[in-house]
Amino acid sequence: MKFNRFVSAAVVAAAAAIAACPAPVHAELTAEETRLNVESFEYIWRTIRDQHFDPTLGGLDWRAVHDEFRPLVEGAETTAEARSAMRGMIAKLGQSHFNIIASEAYASIDSPAKKGDLGGATGIDVRVLDGEAVVVKTLPGAPGAEAGVRPGWIVRRIDDTDIPSLFPPIEKEFEGNPRKDLYLARSVVGRMQGAIGDTLRMTFLDERDRPVEKTLVLAEQRGKKIVFGNFPPFYLRTETKTLEGGIGYFTFSVFFDPLTLMPAYEAAMRSFMEAPGVVIDIRGNPGGIGAVPIGMAGWFIDEKNRDIGTMRTRDNTLRFVVNPRAKLYRGPVAVLVDGFSGSSSEIFAGGVQGFPRVKIVGTRTVGATLPSTAERLPNGDGFQYATASYVARDGTELEGRGVLPDIEARLTREALLAGRDPVLEAAIDWIESQEYNGGK
Q1: Are the CB atoms for 170 and 108 separated by under 8 Å?
Q2: Suppose 365 and one of 186, 211, 333, 341 were both cysteines; which one would form an S-S bond, judging by CB atoms 3.0 to 4.6 Å apart?
Q3: DSSP label at 222?
């Protein structure tokens, strides 16, 4: 059975949310398994031929590629050999954003048992740091915070799932891939979702590495609920504040609902006009509507008719052209990113990177800027392919690569337990090194 899900530039993590059961791995394939592998090969070949954003495939003789690799799939003695042949065919494109994901990795990334309404959450956000699932944030008033869970604690068990056991297949499958951090964290975060009112039995290690058991009742996710197509709901949250020294700070959860998001952002930027610096925090932001970054950049980019990137589909080319505001913020701007920043977050960060007065701070982004489709193949593996090409203003293709920060800074468990944020601290240090007096 084939499973289809359209993944727009709005949803980076959707490809990781395809639930699949592990495919059996035998020393030798049965005739039926070989048939399914060949069927999967043919589906991949036809899809690339018919859906690739470049109809010429860069001049590649795609029929010759087919004839080169099909015998390797037909003659494969193991699933791994057949998969390797299919990946070899895809590699001929020379484009990293066309991927086959082994079904074994899917079982770790998502919990197949959880279907339907996933509007309930713990309000706990996690990143995998040094091989451990570390709490990086608890939303005020959400179940995790109410239960006393603290940043820096380690998530060790959720119901009957031993969390460390999830990581090895993902580490193996995505080694060297910028999406690895996303999928590692997604394997934990996905298991902390469910229907509102569901309960989770969770075991943490506290600041002294003592086991702490909590039973959390899932509550509706915080923020404004946004329904987009057939995707699960998104929740928009914004926060504006002034940091020590008068530096402005704005963060938001998704690039959706511009009628709500943009007024909040514009009000923040107006209030920051005299600030010595501004921090825009898009860590953990999976993206959303592709045009929103253009409006945001116009508050501090003063070059008229300058694009921050170009997207090319099979039929059209779209330039993301900035329209500067009449009154600009002219101080230093730090944009915070991490391995969960994707799609529109990457369009924004990659687009403003390199402009005067702007620095990108944090870790490499996920490398998923494009509209794409993720499908489950007849043999149980996953196939993800892009339907557009996005190039940042400096000519860099961000899909499969991500945005590399100007200033690399990472969270650590020790800092989180101490109530510190090393990424934000690095941004503040850079801002304070700049000469700007609030426009006076």
Answers
A1: yes
A2: 341
A3: S
